[in-house]
Amino acid sequence: MSTLLEMSGVSVSFDGFKAINNLSFRIGEPELRAIIGPNGAGKTTFMDIITGKTRPDEGRVLWGEKSVSLLKMSESQIARAGVGRKFQKPTVFEAQTVRENLAMALKNKRGPFDVLFYNKTRAGAERIDAIAEEIGLSDQLGRISGELSHGQKQWLEIGMLLAQDPRLLLVDEPAAGMTPAEREHTTDLLRRAATKHAVVVVEHDMEFVRRLDCKVTVLCEGSVLAEGSLDHVTANQDVIDVYLGR
Ligand code: ADP
């Protein structure tokens, strides 16, 4: 597993308050990683740094086999390099069908000129079918997206990110508001995606994290407090103290 992203010594302050404090982090490709930590630990800021939304005051963020600095790239360049982010709330085009949503995601990747053709070609159609299968919505392709369940919308949005051939997917609390069956499907989907891509999942729900069955990074006060299997980190006294608010 080669390193895809490596952060070292990263710090960010907001009005003198260190939201991220000398943070180091590495993820391989492919890999599945869960990020946990109490409110205010810096999880959102951590993702904002990767996408280029927030610029650190110090430190390095290196990307890919050539170790290029993400800090020298704009948000859109970072997205084009292969960083996809899924926010907690699904943002699909509700009036369009599932197929149209996936086609639009392919369109963004392909650029404005060839899209009209690409989405009508066999290759385009096959790609949409393959993604629909990957996210478990093959039988919903003709359905108006606004009619999908909350879970199905979340999967569609993950499919739209997959349509853009990401190398790193950042996923914020994917299981929130889902039924037990939907959570199980989401676990399978993310685990499958992580056989090809680097996938970082920020999640509060420990039962969901357990099912992901992956390495866990615990953030606290902007730094890594512990890292390893869920059993390993939850046996750590510092982690126990933080979660029990001591
Ligand atoms: P988490 O996602 O783990 O809850 P955040 O990254 O949102 O944590 O926030 C980390 C800390 O930084 C919090 O104390 C938060 O109040 C503070 N913070 C985040 N963004 C800003 C901002 N734009 N201005 C001021 N403080 C901020």
What are the salient characteristics of this protein?
Rossmann fold; 246 residues; alpha/beta; six-stranded mixed β-sheet; nucleotide-binding; Urea ABC transporter ATP-binding protein UrtD; globular; ABC_AA/LPS_Transport; four-stranded antiparallel β-sheet; ATP binding; binds adenosine-5'-diphosphate
How would you write the strand order of the largest sheet? 6-7-8-3-9-10
How is the main sheet built?
A: 6 strands, mixed
Number of helices: 10
Number of domains: 1
**β-sheet strand percentage:** 25-35%
Look at the helices and sheets and give the structural class.
Answer: alpha/beta
N-to-C series of helices and strands: EEEHEEHEHHHHEHEHEEHH
Give the oligomeric state.
Answer: single chain
**Residue windows where pLDDT falls under 50 for at least 5 positions:** none
What is the CATH C level class, in words? Alpha Beta
CATH topology: Rossmann fold
Q: How many angstroms does the end-to-end distance come to?
A: 37 Å
Helix content: 25-40%
**CA radius of gyration:** 18 Å
Bound molecules: adenosine-5'-diphosphate
- Find the count of extended strands (DSSP E, 2+ residues): 10
In CATH, the architecture is 3-Layer(aba) Sandwich
Domain ABC transporter: 5-246
Organism: Salipiger mangrovisoli
Protein name: Urea ABC transporter ATP-binding protein UrtD
Pfam families: ABC_tran
